Amino acid sequence: MLFSRHRNHLPTAEEALKGRPEPGFRVPDRHTVLGNPLTGPYPEGLVVADFGLGCFWGAERKFWQAPGVWTTLVGYQGGHTENPTYEEVCSGLTGHTEAVRVVFDPKITSYATLLKLFWESHDPTQGFRQGNDVGTQYRSAIYTHSPEQQSRAESSRAAYQSVLTGSGHGEITTEILPAGPFYPAEAYHQQYLDRNPGGYCGIGGTGVACPIGVAPAGG
């Protein structure tokens, strides 16, 4: 019953699992596809963006395939528990969502282009689920790293809501918040679909194009 309740209820800080001061596992050094380091510090001039759009296996692949992306890694964001494990996140008792950290070169692509990919790669109207994946860890989210990212994310949400409404879809439930701690996931989750090409991917969009144009390159 406790697990069932927390599949559709975000815990408060007091309800959340306590966690631990240090991670209980080591993250791989390099991206299996792009070859670049997974964790920072990143080279000067690159920009960090964080997205949650359902199961992070398929979500990460969407972004590592995009032009201008330097590295990606999956992890847990938006919750209370320090250095959570995958099992703890899936219990619904940490408050985190499965997230993808995208590090990109603003000389090649733009944050607006990544927002378009984000919106079109999942259904942002489903609350605590994506398709058959049910739980608070599958909620749609954008975690921003600057006031400019926050403004662009909010504007893109309004623009996409307009076309979704016109296509008969419901209200967007995506949370857009300043980024808090990002905890990298276990090694076996990183670039999972590169190492397991036939693995599960529950990512699926609405089929409605996002009206964000391909903006000039810039963070």
UniProtKB/TrEMBL annotation:
Gene Ontology molecular function: any one: peptide-methionine (S)-S-oxide reductase activity
Any Pfam family the entry gives: PMSR
Signal peptide limits: none
Region (Disordered): 1-24
UniProt EC number: 1.8.4.11
Keyword terms: Oxidoreductase
Active site residues per record: C55
KW Oxidoreductase (keyword) present: yes
Biased amino acid composition, Basic and acidic residues: 15-24
Record-linked InterPro entries: Met_Sox_Rdtase_MsrA_dom, Met_Sox_Rdtase_MsrA_sf, MsrA_MetSO_reductase
Catalyzed reaction equations: [thioredoxin]-disulfide + L-methionine + H2O = L-methionine (S)-S-oxide + [thioredoxin]-dithiol; L-methionyl-[protein] + [thioredoxin]-disulfide + H2O = L-methionyl-(S)-S-oxide-[protein] + [thioredoxin]-dithiol
Residue stretches making up the Peptide methionine sulphoxide reductase MsrA domain: 50-201
Family as reported in the entry's similarity comment: Belongs to the MsrA Met sulfoxide reductase family.
Function: Has an important function as a repair enzyme for proteins that have been inactivated by oxidation. Catalyzes the reversible oxidation-reduction of methionine sulfoxide in proteins to methionine.
Name of the molecule in the record: Peptide methionine sulfoxide reductase MsrA
